[in-house]
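Fig. S4 source data, part A: sequence.
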Amino acid sequence: MLQVARWRIILVAVVTAMGIAFAFPNFVPERLRNSIPDFLPSQGINLGLDLRGGSQLLLEVDIDSLRAQQLDNVADQMAAALRDADPQIRFTGRGVVGDTARIRLIDPTQMERARTALRAIAVSPTGGTDPIYAYTESADGLIEARINEQHMRALSRQAAQQSIEIIRRRIDPTGTSEVSIVRQGDQRIVVQAPGVSDPEQLKERIGQTALMTFHLVREVSPEEAAGGILPPGTMVAGPYGTIGQGSEVVERRARLTGEHLVRANVNTDPQTSEFVMGFQLDSTGARIFCRITREYTNQRFAILLDNQVLTAPRINEPICGGQGQISGNFTAQSASELALMLNAGALPAPLTVIDERTVDASLGQDSIESGARASAVAGLVTFVFMILAYGVFGIFACLALIVNFTLIIGAMSMIGAALTLPGIAGLILTIAMAVDANVLIYERMREEAATGRSPALSIDAGFNRAMITIFDANLTTILAAMILFQFGAGPVRGFAWTLSIGVITSVFTAVLVTQILVAWWFRIARPKTMPI
């Protein structure tokens, strides 16, 4: 024990130096922080919505759009089921009208065979007994399908849950800003973003479905397009904001969708030096893209985002590598925003903003000052207790507690974690609990000294025999914090995050830092009895 390994001293020195370096920007004015050299850490702790202020949005899944999407899929499934069941079943009129997907048999006498073929696609994918689609038939061969309302509610819940992670990846790609995104009811989502003073910034990122699709362009004269004379199965797609390159008449059905997109990144065209959007498809998407570009060489192929044209280049040769690029009137910011949305994934359904508000940070400053006072009082009370209870050993515990506080602040600054009001509570709780390990060690030393052991053996036994208890006690706290972090949201996660960091740093300082200080003191003082 008295011969502390060199690696331990080096580890404590390096970790403490890094903690001081990362914590330092939090204790200097903003003006001085901006003058810190680039090679040194200059980022402070991010403050949560309750301390820093920010924006809050209440979003709702657009049920009408979701229903229309599902009905369009149902119409596709009906057509595919009839083709697969019996090629002799001929039909027309595939489409969506109102709240129904419909298809019309050319020969109404084939209705029984069509009914048998369509029965399979109405079976619930979750194994339920009730069909998810209700069919109605007419004597002239018209078959209509309506979505079961119970299934529609399940789809809306699923869409809301899927949207949560997509929104999180869009507005908090690093996962450390403590953005709170929680579902409210079946189809609503509450988004709280600390530090975002303008809700429009959130709405721009969240509001787009960001579904990228690939369509063949149908060459139609401007006069025909203006007069609404379009070939069957086509639509007019307008340009995408200021990036798109004009309206195009394209096939309504996409030949390839963004579900096969693996990665999108911002590049510059080596010939024009303009910003372009590079994309990479998965193996299935690459095969489809290769087949399309081989079959339709010399034709134009439009890339749409949310049914608006990004670009519509001509296919000059087959593209079989699964890679491509999108050109347009990109700026560095617009290209980065688009890449972020594409990488985050497409929303399963459009989201409607039904409430937005800006949270003022005026109360946050009061909370910070109150938290700082509470932390100072907690630290002072702990210092007094440890010094009165353990004398010089209590001073060592207090020095370790100061290092512990510095490491917590440094760790939160380094990873960019946000400090919320519950996080301050976690910090205060950590300070109060940080000396638990020292108390266990010191009490063990007292017990050993009371049996007549020498100071060196008592110190050695105090550190070695208390370790199992220390690790067991802190392991249970870590597990509880992990559960809170996994299943909690917003402020609960902030509390769990601060508590987890504090437990790790507490064990580090209480064991290693205190051990080094005690060893140095013992070498200098050479005590004959234990001063504890």
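Fig. S4 source data, part B ends here. The two ends are 18 Å apart (CA to CA).
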